[in-house]
Write a structure and sequence with these properties.
about 350 residues, 18 helices, eight-stranded parallel barrel
Length: about 350
């Protein structure tokens, strides 16, 4: 996908752009919502690498949407479609209100976070601790579905604390599905709400992919997306005949070219080269800077673009050292690029 193709998108409203987007779930590949990572600049970058993968926002709390700067939290470039908004909250009325506000922006999906184990999230009574209250999750999803113009989904774990039996997970899925939810993104680890940091919760609890596969067999009318621990394109593709989709997290961020490899494997047009992506992102950065932004907002997401390639270290070093300078512009991206013009 070239910069020209992206930037020639029709100047319609965001809602109109969403209506024109293809079925959000036509592609089985998605990129996980990641706090401090998957902002709008990261998503634009990822869209260049895979033109059809479903992208997710960072988690946005209902309070931020209802009481904060809505454009700051909800605005996005139409090129990011198909795009899902992930919400954090546990009050059905507030979640419904947030969905109603988000309708004007034209998201393709609204997702509820039932998987984050951080202390801050727990204090707000949302994230992974909600797994302990499946009836409340069902109430939240019912309220969201009634208010949202887009499909609503849940991202959750296979268990939480000592509630990690198959029976518990089956009851949770069954209860929430009765609220009309048809699509579940399952991080194939349980969450420990105390004793482990969020980082450790992504690494220490063992992965249990067969548990997710078993869900698909247990609930044939529902869709299950596998998340957690997928490291590269071949590792991810190996699961596609056993689940309904795969969601990459850190692998897509730390080695973004994985997305291009997945696009290629699926017969989707991918960028001709990493340099082509750099050229497109330099154009994007130029527009961002002209609007009052800084290069670092864009460049920080691109450090892993040349992962495993000659010149990767010099690319990372130069960007890391210079992108924070007030004088840094798109020429830095072009000059640091290891691939020749």
């Amino acid at each position: 996908m070239t910069a020209e193709a992206i930037h020639s998108a029709p100047a319609t409203s965001m809602a109109g752009a969403a209506e024109q987007a293809a079925d959000i779930h036509a592609c089985p590949i998605s990129v996980a919502p990641m706090m401090d990572w998957t902002d709008r600049h990261c998503r634009f970058f990822h869209r260049l690498l895979h033109p059809k993968a479903v992208l997710y926002t960072e988690m946005v709390t209902t309070g931020a949407i209802i009481h904060g700067d809505q454009n700051r939290f909800l605005a996005f470039d139409p090129a990011e479609h198909p795009l899902a908004l992930q919400l954090g909250g546990s009050d059905p009325e507030e979640l419904a209100r947030a969905c109603d506000i988000a309708n004007a922006y034209g998201y393709d999906e609204i997702n509820l976070n039932v998987g984050c184990p951080s202390d801050r999230v727990q204090k707000g009574r949302f994230g992974a601790c909600l797994m302990k209250e499946p009836a409340l999750v069902a109430e939240c999803m019912r309220a969201m579905a009634e208010a949202s113009q887009a499909p609503v989904t849940v991202k959750t774990r296979i268990g939480v604390d000592d509630l990690d039996s198959e029976a518990f997970l089956h009851e949770f899925i069954d209860t929430v599905a009765q609220a009309g939810v048809e699509r579940f993104i399952i991080h194939a680890r349980k969450a420990w709400l105390s004793g482990l940091s969020p980082k450790e919760n992504r690494e220490v609890p063992p992965l249990d992919y067969p548990r997710v596969v078993a869900l698909r067999q247990r609930f044939p009318g529902l869709k299950f997306i596998l998340n957690g621990g997928l490291t590269d394109a071949s590792d991810s593709l190996a699961w596609l005949d056993r689940v309904d989709g795969i969601m990459l997290g850190r692998a897509a961020y730390q080695n973004p070219w994985t997305l291009a490899e997945l696009a290629d494997a699926d017969g989707v047009d991918r960028p001709a080269s990493r340099r082509a992506v750099v050229v497109a992102m330099a154009d994007y950065a130029d527009r961002h800077i002209a609007a009052g932004g800084q290069l670092k907002h864009v460049a920080r997401h691109m450090l892993g673009l040349f992962h495993g390639q000659p010149g990767a270290r010099s690319w990372r070093q130069r960007l890391s050292q210079e992108m924070h300078l007030s004088s840094a512009g798109p020429e830095l991206l072009l000059g640091a690029c290891p691939e020749p013009a």
